[in-house]
Amino acid sequence: MTTELEMLTWATALTILLWIPxxxxxxxxxxxxxxxxxxxxxxxxxxxxxxxxxxxxNAIENLAPFAVLVLVAHQLDISNTATTSAxxxxxxxxxxxxxxxxxxxxxxxTVTFAGAWGAQLCILFQILTLGAGS
Length: 134
Description:
Number of strands: 0
Number of domains: 1
Shape: elongated
């Protein structure tokens, strides 16, 4: 497995797990049964849990383009220092995005989002330059 595919797997695993903190917050706030029966859907979450939920939604939105880029690069047999570094950076920046967004770290959300976006652009650039005509 290439580093890019491994990082896609780890990014997917991370995204799969990001619902847990804000769901546990809801359970702690209103109880298990109201949470499981959706009776508490209108009950506001704690501010940090609301941010965690938004960070999870953002992770889902960004996983799709990252996955497409990694899979296209793999299909075209494009794997180099730029793509592997970008894939590793993407994973760690997405993790940092969740943490900084949830913790409300000033500028953390913006910097980590922009970094992960830049990592995607790096892979895209490699595809467009090395994969042209393939």
